[in-house]
Amino acid sequence: MQRVIQRTTSARKQALRRTIKSQERQQLLDRIQTKRARKDYGATLSAQFQTARRNRYEDWEKGPLAPMRDSGLDRTTYGGQEGSVLHPPRLPKHEQRRHVLFAEGDRVCVIRGREQGKINVITQVNRDSETVLIKDVNMGDVIIPEWAKDRMSHNADIQAQAFPVPFDDIRHVIPLEDTETGKLENVLVKHAYAAGPYHERAPHSKLPRYSRYVAGLDIEIPWPMEEEPVITDGEMDTPRMEVEASTFAATLSQPPMPSTVIDELRNKYGKFRTRHDPEYLRAKMMEDYEKEYKETVSLTTPKTEAANMRAAKALERRKARTDADGNLKMSKDTIKFITEQMQKATIATQPAPLKTKAKQAKPKQTKPKATA
User: Fold this and answer.
1) Cα gap 187→190, rounded to integer Å
2) Is 252's pLDDT higher than 80?
3) Which residues contact 7 (CB under 8 A, 6 or more apart)?
4) How confident is the model over 146-179, as pLDDT tens digits?
5) Residue of 9, 116, 160, 325 with fewest CB within 10 Å of its CB?
6) At what angle do helices 2-62 and 278-296 cross, to 10 degrees?
7) Could you tell me the strand order of the sheet in which 211-214 lies?
8) Minimal CA–CA distance to 211: which of 201, 221, 224?
């Protein structure tokens, strides 16, 4: 059973490594694809601008002799642009803004470009490419392909469409009360930021949970009002009363769900599972028996015999140096060295004897004898 757990742990680690590698590979492919898409989008716009400038210069230079480009096959599509220009490439995740301060229904003003100064309402927000579509602003003719005419029920070859405008080219326009006159005036918000409080939104809402404010004044910019969608029941929809009705009763003879569902919800061979399938255990036991059998019937050669003899002698020497509990015995020199060290440590820890000063007897002074 221990081998089964080890194999399960090893398989889980290998699966985790494969998952990490696949994620890194996918991130690399996403970066390459995003970079390529942005490059192609820029090249398309640049080619269109260069063609327009070249045609305009040619019309000015030749005057009445300029070619009539709105004729022939391009007569109905002259001046139109490809539909790919309406879909700018998305930005990488690390370059996207954390807080998007624009929403559908906001009144904004274009501050740069050929539509500078125009004010209107946002009709669509693209968070991946950080662009918006503004009503009747930055309009242009788009060429409609043949396959899309039937779906759109449109007979013309071109159609007027609003082109995307980046976030950096627009600013909020909000009504503020003038402190001197007391009248409401439209004010252009140069800088805004996101902060709390955070609100709970309805499931159908596309608005973020955070609030937005005018930088410097700390005046909240209200989010546009959203209309709750009207949901109508279709022919194939199930009535709510039938959906909420409880029609299943669990019994002891019938489990609430098939056993295969548990394997889908949890890892079948995970280390946290306390029970494994009998087939899986039987297969692992057969693998262990097969491995043991192959070890017993391995081919014996003089080299392997010598190695086995050396291993047996080493095992005998080790057993001779171990006691009944399997612990290694100490040699006499080791025991003697340990005893000496313990005696030294005991002597060093004993207190020193107190020294007493003994009174020394002074020698008697004898008078020198007189000599004749």
Assistant:
1) 9
2) no
3) 269, 284
4) 888 877 777 788 888 888 999 999 999 999 888 8
5) 325
6) 110
7) 192-195, 211-214, 219-220
8) 221
